[in-house]
Protein backbone atom coordinates (compact mmCIF):
# COMPACT_ATOMS: atom_id res chain seq x y z
CA UNK A 1 0.00 0.00 0.00
CA UNK A 2 1.17 3.52 -0.82
CA UNK A 3 -0.38 6.46 1.03
CA UNK A 4 0.08 9.94 -0.38
CA UNK A 5 -0.69 13.04 1.67
CA UNK A 6 -0.75 16.45 0.05
CA UNK A 7 -1.93 19.85 1.22
CA UNK A 8 -2.62 23.03 -0.71
CA UNK A 9 -4.11 26.41 0.08
CA UNK A 10 -5.99 28.08 -2.76
CA UNK A 11 -7.37 31.57 -3.18
CA UNK A 12 -10.99 30.45 -3.62
CA UNK A 13 -14.01 30.33 -1.32
CA UNK A 14 -14.70 26.99 0.36
CA UNK A 15 -17.84 26.26 -1.69
CA UNK A 16 -16.08 27.01 -5.00
CA UNK A 17 -13.04 24.89 -4.13
CA UNK A 18 -15.27 21.99 -3.12
CA UNK A 19 -17.46 22.27 -6.24
CA UNK A 20 -14.41 22.19 -8.53
CA UNK A 21 -12.29 19.47 -6.88
CA UNK A 22 -15.21 17.46 -5.49
CA UNK A 23 -16.49 16.84 -9.02
CA UNK A 24 -13.95 14.36 -10.41
CA UNK A 25 -15.03 15.17 -13.97
CA UNK A 26 -12.82 18.23 -13.44
CA UNK A 27 -9.75 16.15 -12.53
CA UNK A 28 -8.62 16.29 -16.15
CA UNK A 29 -8.22 20.06 -15.69
CA UNK A 30 -5.76 19.78 -12.81
CA UNK A 31 -4.23 16.30 -12.75
CA UNK A 32 -1.68 15.70 -15.52
CA UNK A 33 -2.01 11.97 -14.76
CA UNK A 34 -5.62 12.03 -16.00
CA UNK A 35 -6.11 12.01 -19.78
CA UNK A 36 -9.92 11.73 -19.67
CA UNK A 37 -12.59 11.94 -17.01
CA UNK A 38 -16.34 11.91 -17.33
CA UNK A 39 -19.30 11.64 -15.02
CA UNK A 40 -21.25 8.56 -16.14
CA UNK A 41 -24.19 8.94 -13.75
CA UNK A 42 -25.16 12.58 -14.26
CA UNK A 43 -26.02 15.41 -11.92
CA UNK A 44 -26.20 16.19 -9.11
CA UNK A 45 -22.86 14.92 -7.83
CA UNK A 46 -23.22 12.96 -4.59
CA UNK A 47 -22.83 9.52 -3.03
CA UNK A 48 -22.99 6.96 -5.83
CA UNK A 49 -21.79 9.28 -8.62
CA UNK A 50 -19.42 7.34 -10.89
CA UNK A 51 -16.64 8.58 -13.13
CA UNK A 52 -14.78 6.82 -15.93
CA UNK A 53 -11.16 7.97 -16.13
CA UNK A 54 -8.24 7.23 -18.38
CA UNK A 55 -5.10 7.61 -16.30
CA UNK A 56 -1.59 8.00 -17.65
CA UNK A 57 1.17 6.07 -15.94
CA UNK A 58 4.47 6.18 -17.78
CA UNK A 59 3.71 5.32 -21.38
CA UNK A 60 0.50 3.45 -20.50
CA UNK A 61 -3.08 4.70 -20.56
CA UNK A 62 -5.26 2.73 -18.17
CA UNK A 63 -9.01 2.85 -17.55
CA UNK A 64 -10.24 3.39 -13.99
CA UNK A 65 -13.67 3.81 -12.48
CA UNK A 66 -14.21 6.02 -9.44
CA UNK A 67 -17.31 6.19 -7.26
CA UNK A 68 -18.18 8.79 -4.63
CA UNK A 69 -18.62 7.02 -1.28
CA UNK A 70 -18.75 10.09 1.01
CA UNK A 71 -20.13 13.47 -0.04
CA UNK A 72 -20.23 16.03 2.77
CA UNK A 73 -20.42 19.35 0.90
CA UNK A 74 -18.47 21.57 1.25
CA UNK A 75 -16.15 19.74 3.68
CA UNK A 76 -15.21 16.31 2.37
CA UNK A 77 -15.49 13.94 -0.56
CA UNK A 78 -14.20 10.37 -0.69
CA UNK A 79 -13.90 8.40 -3.91
CA UNK A 80 -13.08 4.72 -4.38
CA UNK A 81 -11.28 3.90 -7.60
CA UNK A 82 -10.62 0.60 -9.28
CA UNK A 83 -8.59 -0.35 -12.30
CA UNK A 84 -6.87 -3.41 -13.68
CA UNK A 85 -3.64 -2.76 -11.77
CA UNK A 86 -4.62 -0.57 -8.81
CA UNK A 87 -7.33 0.15 -6.27
CA UNK A 88 -7.45 3.63 -4.78
CA UNK A 89 -9.27 5.60 -2.12
CA UNK A 90 -9.02 9.37 -2.47
CA UNK A 91 -10.09 11.29 0.66
CA UNK A 92 -10.26 15.05 0.03
CA UNK A 93 -11.00 17.51 2.82
CA UNK A 94 -11.67 21.22 2.59
CA UNK A 95 -11.52 23.91 5.27
CA UNK A 96 -11.80 27.69 5.09
CA UNK A 97 -8.76 29.85 5.74
CA UNK A 98 -8.44 33.62 5.95
CA UNK A 99 -7.09 33.59 2.37
CA UNK A 100 -9.38 30.98 0.81
CA UNK A 101 -9.49 27.21 1.27
CA UNK A 102 -7.07 24.56 2.49
CA UNK A 103 -7.37 21.30 0.57
CA UNK A 104 -6.00 18.15 2.19
CA UNK A 105 -5.72 15.27 -0.22
CA UNK A 106 -4.95 11.73 0.88
CA UNK A 107 -4.73 8.86 -1.60
CA UNK A 108 -4.40 5.24 -0.54
CA UNK A 109 -3.13 3.21 -3.50
CA UNK A 110 -2.94 -0.59 -3.59
CA UNK A 111 -1.40 -2.35 -6.53
CA UNK A 112 -3.01 -5.58 -7.64
CA UNK A 113 -1.71 -8.99 -8.64
CA UNK A 114 1.93 -9.27 -9.66
CA UNK A 115 2.28 -5.48 -9.44
CA UNK A 116 2.20 -5.79 -5.63
CA UNK A 117 5.72 -7.20 -5.80
CA UNK A 118 7.08 -3.92 -7.21
CA UNK A 119 4.96 -1.65 -5.00
CA UNK A 120 7.91 -0.62 -2.75
CA UNK A 121 9.80 0.46 -5.87
CA UNK A 122 6.85 2.53 -7.08
CA UNK A 123 6.48 4.77 -4.01
CA UNK A 124 8.68 7.51 -5.45
CA UNK A 125 6.85 7.44 -8.75
CA UNK A 126 3.47 7.68 -7.02
CA UNK A 127 4.78 10.58 -4.91
CA UNK A 128 5.89 12.39 -8.08
CA UNK A 129 2.44 11.81 -9.56
CA UNK A 130 0.82 13.31 -6.44
CA UNK A 131 3.15 16.30 -6.50
CA UNK A 132 2.33 16.97 -10.17
CA UNK A 133 -1.39 16.71 -9.44
CA UNK A 134 -1.21 19.26 -6.62
CA UNK A 135 0.88 21.62 -8.75
CA UNK A 136 -1.72 21.24 -11.48
CA UNK A 137 -4.50 21.96 -9.01
CA UNK A 138 -2.71 25.12 -7.89
CA UNK A 139 -2.33 26.26 -11.52
CA UNK A 140 -6.00 25.51 -12.26
CA UNK A 141 -7.16 27.63 -9.33
CA UNK A 142 -4.80 30.45 -10.29
CA UNK A 143 -6.22 30.40 -13.83
CA UNK A 144 -9.80 30.41 -12.49
CA UNK A 145 -9.20 33.39 -10.18
CA UNK A 146 -6.55 35.00 -12.32
What would you note in describing this structure?
The model has no long low-confidence stretch (mean pLDDT 89). A seven-stranded antiparallel β-sheet has the order 1-7-6-5-4-3-2. It has helices spanning 14-21, 27-30, 119-145; strands spanning 2-10, 34-39, 50-57, 60-72, 76-83, 86-96, 101-111. It is of the alpha+beta class.
Strand-helix topology:
Blueprint: E1 2-10, H1 14-21, H2 27-30, E2 34-39, E3 50-57, E4 60-72, E5 76-83, E6 86-96, E7 101-111, H3 119-145
Spans with pLDDT under 50 lasting ≥5 residues? none
Calculate the mean pLDDT score and round it: 89
Name the helicity range.
25-40%
Task: Give the strand tally.
Answer: 7
Q: Quote the beta fraction.
A: over 45%
- SSE pattern: EHHEEEEEEH
Taking the alpha carbons of the first and last residues, their distance comes to: 38 Å
What is the chains' assembly state?
Answer: single chain
Helix run count: 3
Q: Main beta sheet, described?
A: 7 strands, antiparallel
> Which structural class matches the secondary elements?
alpha+beta
Strand arrangement, major sheet: 1-7-6-5-4-3-2
Radius of gyration: 15 Å
Overall geometry comes to globular
Short description:
With 146 residues, the chain is an alpha+beta fold. The chain has three helices and seven strands.
Any key phrases for this structure?
7 strands, alpha+beta, globular, 45% strand, single chain, 146 residues, 3 helices, seven-stranded antiparallel β-sheet
Amino acid sequence: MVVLREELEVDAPLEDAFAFVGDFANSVEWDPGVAESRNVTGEPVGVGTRYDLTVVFGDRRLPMTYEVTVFDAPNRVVLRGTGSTVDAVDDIRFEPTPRGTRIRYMADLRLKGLFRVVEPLMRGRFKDTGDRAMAGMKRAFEARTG
